[in-house]
Predict the 3D structure of the following.
Amino acid sequence: MLDLTYDTPKPRVIAGAKNDWELVIGMEVHAQVQSNAKLFSGASTKFGAEPNSNVAFVDAAMPGMLPVINEYCVEQAVRTGLGLKAQINLKSAFDRKNYFYPDLPQGYQISQLYEPIVGEGEVLVEMGDGTARLVRVERIHMEQDAGKSIHDMDPNMSFVDLNRTGVCLMEIVSRPDIRGPEEAAAYLGKLRQILRYLGTCNGDMQSGAMRADVNVSICRPDQYEKYQETQDFSHLGTRCEIKNMNSMRFIQQAIEIEARRQIAIVEAGGEVVQETRLFDPDKQETRSMRSKEEAHDYRYFPDPDLLPLEIEQAWVDDIAANLPELPDAKKSRFISDFGLSDYDASVLTADLDSAGYFEAVAKGRDGKMAANWVINELFGRLKKDDRDITQSPVSPAHLGAIVDLIASDAISGKIAKDVFEISYTTGREPGEIVETEGMKQVTDTGAIEAAVDEIIAANPDQVAKAKENPKLAGWFVGQVMKATGGKANPKAVNQLVAKKLNS
């Protein structure tokens, strides 16, 4: 937890035709474990391979094939739990979840219903306005992913790709603590950030490595507080699940649309039916996919091919001792060590690569100046070119050199921007650019004073106006900077202009 105080954000309120309604949201996030092999086989997990090329016999459910658990996948699940400050269960077990899909060869999915690997944890979700929501995590369990059915390659046939079958997923289940669409997106973003810091999931939502099922319900004001006091779900409305969301923007749209649909039903005297729904971003609607199954519909039973999973506390402690610095701790350290604002620290720690780049630039330098150059100049230029920080043509050493040149008065901030541009486009070292391009700042007060005297002598009318209104002194500063090609030390120019005009 950060060493800062946050207020809890107010719940989102939607006005219906008759009453005001509040939103209650819980999320089940499926995160693909970052591992080279699948959960129960040695088949590759590499994304983008030829269809059905990463399939072992056990993945294809060939007769007599038995699953063998991948220890590294278990380690990754434990690491994730520790990163979410969750309870690690030393004993867990696998169950069979029975249902039929064409891309599920076994006719069941191996999951963990009754005894998950990870118990209760928490995620602090900052909203950027000084408020934060502490979202409780109910559990994390491991399970196999299913394959992929492809319906748009032929008008008469569907195709099945089993490459994804058996890939280890972590299902991270939250409590219904989220109170609005923006909070839901922020929660998923924070969870993604933590997993990427931990190295347990790459968080790529486009490839399906991270996707969310969003449970939405509505309630009247004050009912949620009664639920919190009693943990009695009867105070809340009937929830509907929006399946397989992989866009934060669409998640927000879907929640808003689904909430309004439920409000319309209830205010018309109807009842919301618990079901699984899909979101259509083109039609801006949710539509029914299937009635919501309960545990008994899947006929869960302990998997007979897998013994209960028992791990040792010493092994868990060793994983905990080697956890990386996580986002909240890194942000807090950047604020205290480098004197950054909450906003700047949030931007710089949003991504592990960005945080590492900034820290390399800021080491031994003014933290605020380093942050300004990384955020405003570098990030702005990278965004313009649609690049990420790992593709930056300017190394941390080169950007740090620019900061050093400014700090030593070798160049001004304005000249520094020109140096940055040259370094960005050519890869040249900033010090070499300044020397060879004649960009070094003029600090000789005699030369600067001569330029100031010349401008003042040539503009007596402006001098008279500036004596009456000191704010007009800026005009002389600008003229001197222009006359010296922007190379004069701005501080020295300001001091000399003020001195001459007041004499």
User: Anything to note?
Assistant: The two ends are 58 Å apart (CA to CA).
